[in-house]
Design goal:
The chain is an all-alpha fold and about 350 residues long. α3 crosses α12 and α7 crosses α10. This is ER-bound oxygenase mpaB/mpaB'/Rubber oxygenase catalytic domain-containing protein. One of its GO terms (molecular function) is oxidoreductase activity.
Length: about 350
Amino acid sequence: MAVGASIVVEKIEQPYDGSSKSTLVTDNEFRVLLEDGALAAADANHAVGLPPWFDWDKFRRGQQYFRKNYFALFVSKLCGLISILAIPSIVRILILTRQSSEPVAAFRRYVVTLTHMLDWYDGDLLEPTSRAHRSLMSVRLRHCTAARKARKVGLTPISQLDMVLTQFGFMGFGLLAPEKLGLSGTKEDLEGYVHFWRTVGHLLGIEDRFNLCKGSLEETKKLCGTVLEQVFVPALKKPAEGFEEMSRALMDGMWAMSPFLHYDAFMGFTMRLAGVEKSKEVAKTAYGRGLLSYQIFVHEVLLGSWVTAWFARPIHNFLMWFSVFMTQRLPLLAYLRFGRSQIY
């Protein structure tokens, strides 16, 4: 298969949630995604419109869930970005665009990427004059541009499978590892979160038959669990060529947003979210191990216990918001690290 052939699939000895029924429920959907999705091109030219299943209340609930867990979900999406760099077909496209392989280029690219995501969470995607809608159109245009570049050099263009794996990068860990992230929410909040990403995926060109979030909350968890275990875990254990260069550039670049970001520590935390054994061994230095231990403490203890979460969550949410605010408007650390002329 054109894209899927480069993805190593491991047989699950035990399904993600420990239920044999889980594999049976998701097996056919996963096979369709892996085989048909790899051959189906991403459609960034389809008309933007709300699908018949769209629910405004659920969509807004998903937006509110993000705002409530701003810090933890932001971290989960950074870990997701690292994970998708381990996918061969995706990292080849990113290398081709030459916008992510150096720290300063990665800083520019991923700040824009995360800003798009924040615009989607804050705005009305269907209001033509809104920042969220303009952001959506910008991302669709970037996908079209990347696809044209890929065709020119003989690479397979962006596929539905690539889009879905990227969708997982933005929402998968938040759905599958809430305890490890210290997330707070009800079942209804999670349903809103899933509906939000189903809608965003649809508007960006993911066909409904491939959309990770098309089913119920439990069905989505099972399918995401299968994708994690059979695609991302093998990819993280044996990543694609170019992964370390691109992931280090990502972390080194995003350091200018948060100076506590450290490659080894964040890789270890990503492995932990993915359920990879011996994730702590990824951090090779004492400093990296210390940061990883602190990161685990923040997410699983400070945010994981109601005794401390009532003050730890708003503090960490504010600090992350402030870091993003400064990075978007006055990126002082980026000026110091890369030089002002390199940022714009």
